[in-house]
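Example record

The entry below shows one chain as it appears in the dataset: sequence first, then structure tokens.
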Amino acid sequence: MTRMKKNKKPGRVGGAGARLVAVASAVAMFLAVAVGGSAIAATPTNSASPSEITKTAVPKTVATNDGVSLGVPQHTKIVNAPDKDGKYTVSLNVTGAVDSSTSTTSKPLDIVLVLDESGSMENSISYSDRTTKQQALVTAVDSFLDMTAKANEQLPANAEKHQVSLVKFASDKSDQIGNDTNWRGYNYSQIVSGFTTDFNGLRNTVGQLKPSGATRADYGLQKAQDVLRNKRADAKQVVLFFTDGVPTSQRDFDNQVASDAITAAREMKQAGTDIYSVGVVDGADPGNTTDKSVNSFLNAVSSNYPNATLTKDNWNRWNWNLGQGGNQGYYQSASSAEELKSVFDKIQQQITTTVLYQGVRIEDALSKDNWVTFTGANNAPEFTYSKTVNGKTTDYTPDNKATVDGNGKIVWYPEGQNGQLEAGTTYTVNFTVKTTQKAYDAAAANHKDDSAATGNNNFYTNDNDTAKVFYKTVTSVNGQPTVSDENNTPYNKPLITLPTSTIIVTKTWADGNEQHGSDAVTVHLKQDGKNYGDAVTLNAADEWRHDFTVPAGPDGHQYTVTEQSVDGYDSSVSVSVSTAPSSADNGVITLKGLDEQKGAAAITNTASSVMLPAADLKVTKQVKGHAAANDFGFTLACETTNDQNAGSCKNVSGLDSNGQLRATVSKDVLAKSNDSAEASFGTTNQNLKFKVPSGSANEVVYTFKITENGADNAPAGWQYDTAEHIVTVTVAKNADGKWAATVSGNNPKFVNRYVAVAALPLTGGTTGRAWIVAAGVLLALAGGAGYVAWRRRMTI
């Protein structure tokens, strides 16, 4: 059978040294993308959401001369919401990693080698190097597989291994796995081997490949798609596409073959696969994207241009569209056996250079402000530990337990001072803390009552000066370790949000709030006997209300509310709380509890008054000419005048509904002429209250009028005193600066006189005596008439 091996010509492209560097860079990039990814610590669960879960950014990396680097370990601090007893679970974790490139955390590689096995592979690689392309390829692949096996040996025991699949392409496509030819002896384009870590067996298989056939690049990349249907979900997929010529179905560049190959490559790239194209072909130039031939093709297939297409229009014209992208090093070329081997060696150099974390140490410290304490006996710490691998968390007891020094600093070496973290394993230490009264006090102090102000009631659980993860990296090149200096990076600072409490202060004027629209009062809140915050002003604009933000907490505080003295008014405060365990009694609000508490203080302003015993207001009665035949009654009546500083009777309490008081002098104490006696306008426990002046007035004068009852209807022989005596009560401050009531005109004397009948005057018309005589005559006549009538009845 005739081999199709003369469809391509060997040739050199540029200097070998320049291409070696370029190819090496491409390979380095290949692995850099292939090993990307990160491990995320499992988040502890709680009925309430964690207060904050934050991942620390990577501020720096540790790099080797081969481009391998390992960022700071993935580390997170988590604080869960408190339980019913106010205890918070704190978790600190760190995740181990191994790096074979420039990514933070290692991923295993699923590598598909797509190799050109067309007939031209039997040609010499160049005029100066008579090694055939097939021989050079076998040597390069052998080295690649050897170094991949060594790389797997250096991975941690629990790490997934790199695996390789082999695809050949030439002529017809076969769905069988193997190394077969068609009836004409040309190579099938087929999967030679699925993914395997048996690199010795794969090396033997590569040695048995024999070039023959066309260059059906489309079939090769389509078979790579078939292989990747069995990819690992947690692995990075990479295709290494090698060819020594343009895509053909016979001899010349075949646009349809190229189009189908580019389509298959685009679908893999869109699924996250990185594709590197390596060309050992005359005219290869990765910088050439416009030749519409081999260079356009190998750029379009590679990840240099993720969305490249080659399509045919209605006029059967082929249109190249590379789309967005550029020369990122995914297309490389080689023109000698040495260069080709260097490409694969550089790939493996990246793989076999590993970086691990060593001597990792977690440090944390309780807040320096004593906002939290441990929850064990005598405030001792209690630690638990877990490991998370592939999303599964297992509790365990480490050989190296966390310690706490006298200052509350926590130190933990997950794998000991010189141990290495297992790749992909998240180590977690957990402990519980409870917030102190100082934390509640600080939360309330940071809170701002002004809605336009900034501030909150959050606080940090750790001090970032001490909460850090310390680590070293150990870099192994071909099994030779090098340990770095110690590095560190801070933990995130989760926040705990503590509830604040409220005391609502309201103001009521007993004489009506509407009368005090222009007034204002100053109120002070005291905490445990000391002023808490600034005084506040209550006024009508704020509806006579202010809400104080205060702490409750496990120990709690006592609060009192006082009003700055308002001239002319007395204030009283009644207090209450909404729920236990807080309480209110005798003007004191005690707020205590882990949840939000609410208290209330209601201030009532009542007009100030002075008291005057009603019994102090007196009247004196004297009789002349005869002993008293009846009791004498007197009335004390309040009168509102228009005098300056006159007081209103409505501001006097203790009077009856008519604004009066009454007094009585008994006749028994006026047994003879000229006797006199006092009477009081009230009993011993009866008081009058007088409102004190308000505003700028210094005094107020209340006026009363005392009159004798029945003075205009005196009994026979008596002449009552009809005088109206005025008594005033002046309310003003005394020498001590206190309001006092002073009485003027008190205890007026009323004199009633009795005049005998014989002493009544006879002249001057009908006098009292005349009326008496007339009355006697009439009485006699009436008596005679009565006797006559009686005698007449007796004789009938």
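Notes for this example: The longest strand covers residues 353-365. The chain has a mean pLDDT of 82.
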